Amino acid sequence: CILIIDFGSQVTQLIARRVREAGVYCEIAPFGSAEAALDRLRPKGVILSGGPASVTLEESPRTPQRVFEAGVPVLGICYGQQTMAAQLGGRVSPSDHREFGRAFVEVVEHSALFDGVWQVGEKHQVWMSHGDRVDTLPDGFRIIAHSEGAPYAATADEARRFYGVQFHPEVVHTPDGARLIANFVRHVCGLAGDWTMAGFRDAKIAEIREQVGKSRVICGLSGGVDSAVAAVLIHEAIGDQLTCVFVDHGLMRLGEAEQVVSLFREHYGIPLVHVEAERLFLDGLKGLTDPEAKRKFIGKTFIDVFDEEARRIGGADFLAQGTLYPDVIESVSFTGGPSVTIKSHHNVGGLPERMKMALVEPLRELFKDEVRELGRELGLPEAFVGRHPFPGPGLAIRIPGEVTKERCDILRKADAVYLEEIRKAGLYDAIWQAFAVLLPVRTVGVMGDGRTYDSVCALRAVTSVDGMTADIYPFDAAFLSAVATRIVNEVKGINRVVYDYTSKPPGTIEWE
Ligand code: XMP
């Protein structure tokens, strides 16, 4: 596999994406734990990421020297190129010509990195983002491409198979970048490019069997894609040694709880305990209006219920979770300051400490879209696999103010109408997440000859890559108007519909 050493670039995960798209397995390690990762993975090649620090400063991070002594190819990107140059005897200095954004490099020498992609004499667009630059190369290195602002835009020591690029091949604004990365991992590192989801599935099944042996495993289902894929995979591995527990807090969308139960029990024949805890959750939510108080209550109660159920089932040594790769990677922070809690996320993250069980986390190495692909590989229905994300606290955070059964029912109906229209219009897959919000505001309307005084419903739809930033989905007015008409006509309790035009930031995707 390939090891990516992370120096804190915003786009390190994109390097991993490109490597896997080339059919090669890789993992990311923060620079601080790179030595341990080197021993554990024994990679066939190493990629050094970019990062915000400056090599010209004494205390800035370095690549473990062993990386350069391991006899494997190394590709340094931006900061990675600079630490490589500095550590191998070259020199890096702060540049007075700062280059950001689009730039053009000219290829001046042939290199294995460019094989079949770039020829000598050609000019190609790349994406630069840097202040410092290499200005004396270490022995053995030659310039293979240059640009106006960066005479050392790409450098290589073909004998040792060390490469450095000052631009970012991992971003889409370097149009040939993915092919350069594929060249590095396949041609230079000699990896076959045969990593596939089917292969991953088989390897994981073997690994789960090995880890679990004859023990029993318990898995919490949330109704979402991740926990469902984890459960189905584990069931393929160990059959009925797995028991799934679905804590139904009554805050799911219309028909969702029934779907999960029938998918698992009927379609897959996986043992499933359906804990119907709606009353417990709604009783506890009575009188709670503060968003954080609602989130904390739901998170804690979820863990309580799950824990109790696990005890009742008894005998499980392992807890299975659908943890994904982005939750696992330690983020590399240079600011050091504490970050502000915007929202307390409800995840089953609190469970392992409480239950003292060993973890089975078969999706730890995967990105969200890879989990979807694995789900398809496991035969999960497309409608389930392609579902929009849904937050753990469910509808409770889409009903600002107090949550009641009545308000949940109203929201479920409005949300179902909205999503049905989105599906009918063929827009579902173009949207990251779409949902209705029920506001604690009543306004006056007129219906037939009568006055109405009912709730306002807000519609939200966003596009996003990872949920960290989001843009509103630009529906046309006719679509929104049709949805508004249907909701007001069909959902008793709502007489006005508005559309949320706020991007993230400054808004968040959910309203609480
Ligand atoms: P925000 O509202 O913070 O949401 O912009 C970003 C993404 O996270 C989802 N979300 C959650 N997911 N537990 C989850 O598993 C939570 O407590 C939670 N809160 C928000 C949200 O739906 C969006 O996709």
TrEMBL record:
<keyword id="KW-0315">Glutamine amidotransferase</keyword>
<keyword id="KW-0067">ATP-binding</keyword>
<dbReference type="InterPro" id="IPR029062">
    <property type="entry name" value="Class_I_gatase-like"/>
</dbReference>
<keyword id="KW-0658">Purine biosynthesis</keyword>
<feature type="active site">
    <location>
        <position position="170"/>
    </location>
</feature>
<dbReference type="InterPro" id="IPR014729">
    <property type="entry name" value="Rossmann-like_a/b/a_fold"/>
</dbReference>
<feature type="domain" description="GMPS ATP-PPase">
    <location>
        <begin position="195"/>
        <end position="387"/>
    </location>
</feature>
<keyword id="KW-0436">Ligase</keyword>
<dbReference type="GO" id="GO:0005524">
    <property type="term" value="F:ATP binding"/>
</dbReference>
<dbReference type="Pfam" id="PF00958">
    <property type="entry name" value="GMP_synt_C"/>
</dbReference>
<dbReference type="InterPro" id="IPR022955">
    <property type="entry name" value="GMP_synthase"/>
</dbReference>
<feature type="active site" description="Nucleophile">
    <location>
        <position position="78"/>
    </location>
</feature>
<dbReference type="InterPro" id="IPR001674">
    <property type="entry name" value="GMP_synth_C"/>
</dbReference>
<protein>
    <recommendedName>
        <fullName>GMP synthase [glutamine-hydrolyzing]</fullName>
        <ecNumber>6.3.5.2</ecNumber>
    </recommendedName>
</protein>
<dbReference type="InterPro" id="IPR022310">
    <property type="entry name" value="NAD/GMP_synthase"/>
</dbReference>
<feature type="active site">
    <location>
        <position position="168"/>
    </location>
</feature>
<comment type="subunit">
    <text>Homodimer.</text>
</comment>
<comment type="function">
    <text>Catalyzes the synthesis of GMP from XMP.</text>
</comment>
<dbReference type="InterPro" id="IPR004739">
    <property type="entry name" value="GMP_synth_GATase"/>
</dbReference>
<dbReference type="Pfam" id="PF00117">
    <property type="entry name" value="GATase"/>
</dbReference>
<feature type="binding site">
    <location>
        <begin position="222"/>
        <end position="228"/>
    </location>
    <ligand>
        <name>ATP</name>
    </ligand>
</feature>
<comment type="pathway">
    <text>Purine metabolism; GMP biosynthesis; GMP from XMP (L-Gln route): step 1/1.</text>
</comment>
<keyword id="KW-0547">Nucleotide-binding</keyword>
<keyword id="KW-0332">GMP biosynthesis</keyword>
<dbReference type="GO" id="GO:0005829">
    <property type="term" value="C:cytosol"/>
</dbReference>
<dbReference type="InterPro" id="IPR017926">
    <property type="entry name" value="GATASE"/>
</dbReference>
<dbReference type="InterPro" id="IPR025777">
    <property type="entry name" value="GMPS_ATP_PPase_dom"/>
</dbReference>
<dbReference type="GO" id="GO:0003921">
    <property type="term" value="F:GMP synthase activity"/>
</dbReference>
<dbReference type="Pfam" id="PF02540">
    <property type="entry name" value="NAD_synthase"/>
</dbReference>
